[in-house]
Every structure is written in structure tokens, then in C-alpha cells.
Design goal:
This protein has helices at about 5-10, 45-55, 115-120, 140-145, 160-170, 185-190, 205-215, 235-245; strands at about 30, 35, 65-70, 75-85, 90-95, 95-100, 130, 150-155, 180, 195-200, 215-230, 250-260, 265-275. It is of the alpha/beta class. The site of S-adenosylmethionine (SAM) has 21 residues, from strand 8 and helix 6. S-adenosylmethionine binds next to strand 8 and helix 6.
């Protein structure tokens, strides 16, 4: 039985009949915390009941929160407590990787799990990777943990996210191969060293794409994330055109993949771009 059907069955008689169809169809779990997104405002009076019920049926869940939004260029989540203990710090484990995280400080998308796995499977031995939007190591830590010959340079400008990144590098014992860099990636991205650049952010500007190109040594991949209306596999045409004209490098979009549904009308995409400099 699907989660929504189970919830409807259990809460029959507890919440009005006409609201049963407004119950959430799913949730994500980060460590011990279950996260609801976009709960229907009509069921807000019953959120706590729903949260407490979830804690009683899912042994992994000790806390339930609702994520209302993410704000600013730090992508800081807006979180509301729903049920259980009142804390937002947890330890999440995925692909042999330990993530210490505080859900009110930084984003960690469960919807990107397939992409984390895809990267672990795609990266070859001895690669050198630049994660320009490292956060707490969301995309790059599983690679360095699962690929013992790979080195990573991760750039992050949010002090709190950067502190968690350093903590996670230590927790995963990869400090000899993961080098965290604190700062704005437009100024702090190293040059001419990488086989692959991760750009896991939605408001990438020309300057940042230029830095990604400069980070590549001779040839390599850029994984460029974006959001686009459903059904539209849009590539970052303008930014690529401009960079191609300015640099003279060969820049080719080899594939555009859907990472997840971002909202009822938008998809999260990743363009896999191959760059040859000489
Ligand atoms: C949405 S999170 C994404 C984390 C991860 N890349 C992913 O895709 O799951 C974006 C991170 O990029 C950081 N960020 C945004 N602009 C930046 C910049 N100019 N320089 C360095 N970090 C930046 C934010 O602070 C945030 O931690």
C-alpha cells in the first residue's frame, strides 16, 4: 500500500473525510528527520497528528519537519517543526558516506540521491574533481569516499556549510584527498587542474562558467545543473555560446539528464558538457 493510502486508512475518523485526499503522498528522510514539502494548507491544523503518526510507523524517524522554502544564494532552508524532538541536527548515511547536517543551515536534497550514485559510477580512477558549490559535500563526498584514487577540491562560501564540510571530510577520513576551499567560487576556484567540474546550483552566471572552464586541465567534463519547465530539455545555450566565443575552446553538450521533478511545473536538469581546450 502506498504511503498516502496507509495514512488515509490510519487517520480515518481522526481528520475530516474531505481532507483525507489532501494528505501528503510522500516524505524524504535525512538521518532521523522526516521532511515534508508543500503540505496542503488545508491540513495545517492536522500536521502534528500526521507527524506523530509518521513517527509511530517509521522506526527510522524521530523528528518530523516541513520545509517551506529555500532562501538566498546560500540556499538556506526555511524549516518548521511538526512533531517529535525539537532539533534539526542529524547524521545521514548514504553510499558509505557520513553527512553531519543541520537542516536549518544547509540544503540536502534526497531527490539528488540518484545523481550522487550516478557520479560515483561515472567517475574514473585518478580523476581530480572540482565541486564549485560544495555545500557540506552533498555531491562530492560520496565520490571521494567510494573512489580511493580520486582527489576533490570543494569550494563553498557559506561559513556554516563550510564548517560542516570540514567536519564531514574528517568524519569520512578523506582529509588527504578532499581539499576544502572557503570563498566565492568566482575568485577561489583553482585553475588548470581538473578532469571534472560539478556545478550543482541553479543560478550559475557567465563568470562562474568561465571559472569552471579555467578549472579544467586540457579536457574534461562540466556537470551543469539548471531548472527548466517540464517537457523542456533546455540547455544553458547563451552561457555556453558566450564562453565558446570568448575562449575558443571546444564546448559540447553531450547529454541533458533529468535529475528530479523540482516543482509541479519545473524539472531539475543536468547538462553533461565536454570541454577540449587544445
Ligand atoms: C543548493 S546548494 C547545492 C549543494 C550541492 N552542490 C548539490 O547539488 O546538492 C548550493 C551551495 O552553493 C553555495 N554557493 C552558492 N554560490 C556560491 C559561490 N559564489 N561560491 C561558493 N559557494 C557558493 C551555497 O552556499 C550552497 O551551499
Amino acid at each position: 500500500m502506498k504511503f498516502k493510502e496507509k495514512l488515509q486508512e490510519s487517520l480515518k475518523g481522526t481528520i475530516p473525510k474531505d481532507l483525507l485526499k489532501k494528505l501528503p503522498s510522500g516524505y524524504s528522510v535525512i538521518g532521523e528527520i522526516a521532511v515534508f514539502r508543500h503540505l496542503n494548507p488545508k491540513i495545517s491544523a492536522y500536521k502534528r497528528t500526521i507527524g506523530e503518526h509518521l513517527i509511530s510507523i517509521d522506526p527510522q524517524v524521530k523528528i518530523v519537519v516541513e520545509q517551506l522554502d529555500t532562501v538566498s544564494s546560500y540556499r538556506k532552508p526555511v524549516i518548521e517543526h511538526v512533531a517529535g524532538e525539537k532539533r534539526t541536527q542529524t547524521i545521514h548515511k548514504e553510499f558509505n558516506t557520513i553527512f553531519n547536517i543541520d537542516l536549518v543551515m544547509v540544503t540536502f536534497s534526497s531527490g539528488n540521491k540518484n545523481e550522487r550514485n550516478h557520479l560515483v559510477q561515472t567517475v574514473s580512477d585518478n580523476e581530480v574533481i572540482c565541486d564549485m558549490f560544495a555545500c557540506i559535500g552533498n555531491l562530492s563526498l560520496p565520490i571521494v569516499v567510494n573512489k580511493p584514487s580520486v582527489r576533490i577540491y570543494g569550494v563553498e562560501w557559506n561559513q556554516r556549510a563550510f564548517d560542516f564540510l570540514k567536519q564531514n571530510i574528517e568524519a569520512n577520513k578523506v582529509d588527504e584527498r578532499y581539499f576544502p576551499i572557503y570563498g566565492d567560487n568566482r575568485k577561489s576556484t583553482p585553475k588548470n587542474f581538473a578532469t571534472r567540474v560539478l556545478m550543482g546550483y541553479f543560478d550559475i552566471d557567465c563568470n562562474q562558467f568561465r571559472c569552471a572552464l579555467e578549472a579544467i586541465e586540457n579536457q574534461g567534463w562540466i556537470h551543469y545543473h539548471s531548472i527548466a519547465p517540464r517537457g523542456n530539455l533546455e540547455q544553458p545555450q547563451e552561457i555556453i555560446e558566450q564562453a565558446r566565443n570568448e575562449s575558443g575552446y571546444k564546448i559540447e553538450v553531450k547529454e541533458i539528464r533529468q535529475i528530479k521533478k523540482y516543482s509541479p511545473r519545473l524539472n531539475h536538469l543536468c547538462s553533461d558538457i565536454f570541454v577540449e581546450k587544445y
